[in-house]
């Protein structure tokens, strides 16, 4: 890095992944997940440096410029990929923080790798940041970085934002390294959560685990350092998505898609990373039963589900993939016409343009996570759907449900309840659907990613 940055984002993922094809050629691809979707427009607007991993193990990549900001790759060895990324981040913290919907595994060598890699990220940030710079650390993979960074560079202003839920204290306390994580986070001047409940869980934990003085949302960590915890619900570049969905290319692609699907009367759509927190098993079972019971007619209705491959070597994800393949196969073998499946399922990531085309044609968007920090897919649908006739079915357990209150809310554990709401969303009179969708569009227009970044960074700059 030749030039020091006054604004630095540190995240496990960079906005782009380096992919090597089988012929040895190298390409860069948009990284998966909501964190990148949300942060990428923030960096494009503000400039600065984005420090992160480029998605491939055992590779050193030099910093480069991208869309008006610097990208600083941090390397991971194959062993670190396994222990820090697949292990501690995604087989310990991910399930623990998502209500233990899968069992978290605790392994001491995974923790050691987590500490080592966090230190590497902290050092990279310390090296890239100018005197007095603002450094914004992101998500559960890097919870030790705030404190490490404070030790290395006490002159910096350090923010931290957790994109996933912060769990109830009863679950968090299972973690053998709970004190270290807590101390790591408290190194930040401002710790942001998706919803007020996350901030409340965190502050309750601080009160119970540390002898520190807590006044409302402010923890006095040392004589000279205090840490504030608040909620900042994340969002999307609403106008950017709406504009994209209205381009002639996307309109043409949505028409081609309709043609390919055989012009169904109603399209139900699911869009997720293939993750067990997303409630895919429950959703597919509910949709399958509606087809089997004749409430949905495969000659007229279709359920289109696309799922981006994710964390494919982690055991729970392998199991999920097999389960979904089996479920979809079983349902399609029992209902639907030849050449006209009830469920159209693709295990693949698609370009942003194709996603917008899908959102355009979906009559009922089905978002049913068992637990989700926010869920940006729900907001993307609201932004992209071209009229107010669409319907959003949304799990109560997504952070987004606190804002998108006019969605058709469901408890994904209650299959009959979910089936009833799916049918209601599909059959409500147009006027009722429009009333809801108008309110949703207003919400998503008023609370964009700019509001989120301005609120967090404004608060961070204003702390004394
Ligand atoms: P998470 O961050 O847990 O994956 P979010 O719903 O917050 O969940 O964000 C997911 C992001 O990934 C969204 O921007 C969405 O458009 C994108 N995405 C999800 N599934 C696909 C897919 N099959 N192809 C391309 N992009 C996808
Ligand atoms: C969620 C997490 C992000 C993560 C993304 C994709 O959005 O909050 O931190 O980057 O999922 O997951 P992956 O493991 O592929 O980075």
UniProtKB/TrEMBL annotation:
Protein name, per record: Trehalose-6-phosphate synthase
GO molecular function, one term: alpha,alpha-trehalose-phosphate synthase (UDP-forming) activity
Gene3D superfamilies per UniProt: Glycogen Phosphorylase B
SUPFAM superfamilies: UDP-Glycosyltransferase/glycogen phosphorylase
Pfam families in the cross-refs: Glyco_transf_20 (PF00982)
Family in the record: Belongs to the glycosyltransferase 20 family.
Biological-process GO terms, alphabetical: trehalose biosynthetic process
Transmembrane segments: none
InterPro entries listed in its UniProt record: Glyco_trans_20 (IPR001830)
């Amino acid at each position: 890095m030749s030039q020091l940055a006054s604004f630095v984002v540190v995240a496990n993922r960079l906005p782009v992944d380096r992919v090597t094809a089988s012929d040895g050629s190298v390409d860069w691809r948009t990284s998966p997940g909501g964190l990148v979707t949300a942060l990428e427009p923030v960096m494009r607007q503000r400039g600065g440096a984005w420090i992160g991993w480029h998605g491939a193990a055992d590779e050193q990549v030099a910093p480069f410029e991208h869309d008006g900001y610097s990208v600083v790759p941090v390397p991971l060895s194959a062993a670190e990929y396994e222990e820090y990324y697949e292990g501690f981040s995604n087989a310990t913290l991910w399930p623990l923080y998502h209500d233990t919907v899968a069992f978290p595994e605790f392994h001491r060598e995974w923790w050691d790798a987590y500490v080592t890699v966090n230190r590497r990220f902290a050092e990279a940030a310390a090296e890239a940041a100018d005197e007095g710079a603002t450094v914004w650390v992101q998500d559960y993979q890097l919870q030790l970085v705030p404190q490490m960074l404070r030790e290395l560079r006490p002159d910096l202003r350090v923010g931290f934002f957790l994109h996933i839920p912060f769990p109830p204290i009863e679950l968090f306390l299972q973690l053998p390294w709970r004190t270290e994580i807590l101390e790591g986070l408290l190194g930040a001047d401002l710790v942001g959560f998706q919803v007020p409940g996350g901030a409340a869980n965190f502050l309750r934990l601080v009160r119970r685990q540390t002898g520190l003085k807590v006044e409302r949302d402010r923890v006095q960590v040392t004589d000279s350092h205090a840490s504030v915890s608040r909620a900042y619900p994340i969002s999307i570049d609403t106008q950017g998505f709406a504009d994209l969905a209205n381009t002639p290319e996307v309109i043409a692609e949505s028409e081609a898609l309709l043609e390919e699907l055989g012009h169904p009367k109603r399209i139900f759509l699911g869009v997720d990373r293939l993750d067990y927190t997303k409630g895919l098993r429950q959703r597919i079972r509910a949709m399958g039963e509606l087809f089997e019971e004749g409430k949905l007619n495969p000659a007229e209705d279709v359920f289109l589900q696309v799922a981006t491959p994710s964390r494919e070597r982690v055991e729970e994800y392998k199991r999920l993939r097999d389960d979904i393949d089996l479920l979809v196969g079983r349902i399609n073998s029992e209902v639907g016409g030849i050449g006209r499946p009830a469920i159209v399922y693709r295990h693949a990531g698609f370009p942003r343009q194709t996603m917008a085309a899908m959102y355009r044609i979906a009559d009922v968007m089905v978002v049913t996570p068992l637990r989700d920090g926010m869920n940006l897919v729900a907001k993307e649908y609201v932004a992209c759907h071209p009229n107010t006739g669409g319907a959003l079915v949304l799990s109560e357990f997504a952070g987004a449900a606190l804002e998108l209150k006019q969605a058709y809310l469901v408890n994904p554990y209650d299959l009959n309840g979910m089936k009833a709401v799916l049918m209601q969303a599909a059959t409500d009179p147009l006027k009722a659907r429009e009333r809801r969708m108008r309110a949703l569009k207003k919400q998503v227009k008023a609370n964009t990613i700019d509001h989120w970044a301005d609120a967090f960074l404004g608060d961070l700059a204003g702390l004394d």
